[in-house]
Amino acid sequence: MVGGDVFMKRTSIAGTKVGQLEERVLELLLSYDRVLTGREVYDALGEPKRAYTTIMTVLGRLVEKGLVERIESRDANRYSATGGRDRLAAKKIDRLLASSEDPRCVLAYFVDEIHDESLLAELAAIIERQRKS
What we know:
Arc Repressor Mutant, subunit A, alpha+beta, three-stranded antiparallel β-sheet, 6 helices, two-stranded antiparallel sheet, 2 domains
């Protein structure tokens, strides 16, 4: 195949493109209630055809993309998803707003596109709670 993984299917998680193996690793981390070492991720994937170094590279890429957190330790680094899918999406929105010249304008456009009355009511309630706190 020319170009390596050019033809690999990509998925968007929280607005970030990930490859199939990245998605599997992230799903695995989301399924655990605790942080995992790279070795635990490798073992849990159960893919003897993949090299341990490949899994470590994937974990590094997920850290760079902000989808996984690395907790550094002398014995072995540990990894966890930076949140569930909803939290990951919220982080992506926060990064998008931070990259905008006018975040207020972006939010105004976003809210103008919401046509679900119950969602607008929830948003108004959240804003009201935020004002009171």
